[in-house]
UniProtKB/TrEMBL annotation:
It comes from the Bacteria. The keyword Coiled coil does not apply. Keywords: Hydrolase, Metal-binding, Protease. The keyword Ribonucleoprotein does not apply. This is Dipeptidase. PANTHER family: BETA-ALA-HIS DIPEPTIDASE (PTHR43270), SUCCINYL-DIAMINOPIMELATE DESUCCINYLASE (PTHR43270:SF12). Residues 209-365 form the Peptidase M20 dimerisation domain. It comes from Kitasatospora terrestris. InterPro entries: Cyt/Met_Dipeptidase, Peptidase_M20, Peptidase_M20_dimer.
Length: 481
């Protein structure tokens, strides 16, 4: 094992790490609950002050944890938080941890266990919006650093730790590129850990090695200049809702493939080794249906469920509306129907190219009797995969394996994250570590985090921090003997 304990290069002792985690977990859960109570919803303008409160809460916690440098980075939108704990050796390597403190919007009446911003501890779970996605994931790094220092007796890590905590990840991080550019001189990491991902289960040593890219597009189809009395035109006028449904009905072919021409031209097929690796991940269809709440399995023929999720592109309808849902009928044919379309991309697809392909396909599908418009925000994410065999990935594998007691397997993440942007802007590889689970109900009502996942997360990261300097090729001077 390549971990360091400060006494000749031996691994940091696992019992000491676990004792420290167990002795502090209750207080950490209270800290997480207090942060979860802050409704830092980035998609709703009325929550702007709550995002400020969330940033202030985090800066206070980081200062209390001992970070010598903590500041808030303002943007034209929500604030980000930056922190730095320098190594004792100025030549030591630097690790940057990326996370986010904003959360998704809520529909309060859908929540049953507790109100979304009234966190509730029930047994070994904490319920509340943001508890799993992703406030817990960021705090696990803070708790792990404190554990690492306490167990080793150090006053500073043997690497410089940077935190960048985005306030707009849930709306596509529209100002992250500008932040990274403005502060590039202070951000020169040797590696990046993105903590906004999931585990496979609490009993498997699974390490995420890539995220899919994402494209969001809004399609409007118009059949008239204004809403028209249905008795006046029904049966003779173009119905935009029917046309929208017809078009979207052709989005996939009979084999479950996305029917957009040339969409698969740049798709990099998974290697035989990768397919074998995914096949080794424990998977049971009934268990997956139970954990996700899905009622069946669909998708591209010829590929397993895990391959569809992590190695193949996809298209989905996120929002579909026409008329005035929820209001009494006015007896009109609506002038406009609209849908939000999401595309999930894999290497070597490009978000910009996918938008162009989708737009051309829509133009070929919509009948001439209708006007249409497809818009896409300039904040789409490209896919990203951790370089195979990178020593930091190997260190993370060792840490996860040591915690769970099983060999590490490499999984993916079917969602998206700004990994490609971080890697490109900061010229450093990205690895992924998170504490979420498929059943944590991210973006849905009754989101929760498992306390066992937090315990495992802190333990894993404590081992990872111990191993990191050597993994980056610059072990501490005291370990050279």
């Amino acid at each position: 094992m390549a971990g360091l304990s400060g006494d000749g290069g031996r691994p940091v002792p696992a019992p000491a790490v676990r004792d420290h985690v167990d002795g502090h977990l209750e207080g950490w859960v209270e800290e997480l609950a207090a942060w979860t109570a802050v409704p830092s919803v980035s998609a709703v303008p009325e929550h702007a002050s709550d995002l400020d409160d969330s940033a202030r809460f985090l800066t206070e916690r980081l200062r209390e944890a001992g970070f010598p440098e903590v500041d808030v980075w303002t943007t034209a939108g929500a604030p980000a938080v930056h922190a730095r704990w320098p190594a004792r050796d100025p030549d030591a390597p630097t690790l940057l941890v990326y996370g986010h403190h904003d959360v998704r919007a809520v529909v309060p009446e859908h929540w049953r266990i507790t109100a979304p911003f009234s966190p509730l501890r029930r047994g070994d779970r904490l319920y509340g919006r943001g508890a799993s996605d992703a406030k817990a994931q960021l705090l696990c790094h803070v708790w792990a650093l404190r554990t690492h220092l306490a167990v080793t007796g150090r006053t500073a890590p043997d690497f410089t730790l940077l935190l960048v905590v985005d306030g707009e990840e849930e709306i596509g991080s529209p100002h992250l590129a500008d932040l990274l550019g403005r502060h590039a001189g202070r951000l020169r990491p040797d590696a990046i850990v993105l903590s906004d991902t999931m585990l496979w289960s609490l009993d498997d040593a699974a390490v995420c090695t890539g995220v899919r890219g994402a494209v969001s597009a809004h399609l409007e189809i118009r059949g008239a200049d204004h809403d028209v009395h249905s008795g006046l035109v029904a049966g003779a006028a173009p119905d935009p809702s029917a046309e929208l449904c017809r078009v979207l009905g052709h989005l996939h072919d009979e084999r479950g493939r996305v029917a957009v021409p040339h969409f698969y031209d740049d798709v990099r097929p998974p290697t035989a080794a990768r397919r074998a690796e995914l096949a080794s991940v424990p998977f049971d269809t009934e268990d997956w249906l139970r954990r996700t709440g899905c009622r069946g399995v669909r998708g591209e023929a010829g590929w397993s469920v895990l391959e569809r999720l992590w190695s193949r592109p996809a298209a989905e309808i996120a929002v579909l509306h026409g008329g005035e849902p929820g209001l009494p009928s006015r007896g009109v044919m609506p002038a406009v129907a609209a849908a939000d379309i999401g595309l999930r991309l894999v290497p070597d697809q490009s978000a910009d190219r996918a938008v162009d392909q989708l737009r051309q396909w829509v133009g070929e599908q919509v009948s001439p009797d209708f006007a249409w418009r497809l818009t896409s925000p300039p904040i789409n994410a490209d896919p990203y995969s951790t370089p195979a065999g990178h020593p930091v990935l190997a260190a993370l594998d060792r840490a996860v394996s040591r915690t769970v007691g099983r060999p590490a397997v490499h999984i993916g993440n079917g969602g998206s994250a700004p990994a490609a942007l971080l890697a490109q802007a900061l010229h450093a590889p990205v690895v992924f570590y998170g504490t979420g689970l498929p059943e944590d109900r991210w973006h849905d009502a009754d989101e929760k985090v498992e306390l066992r996942a937090l315990r495992q997360g802190v333990e894993t990261l404590a081992y990872f921090y111990d191993d990191l300097p050597r993994a980056l090729g610059r072990p501490p001077a005291h370990a050279a003997a």
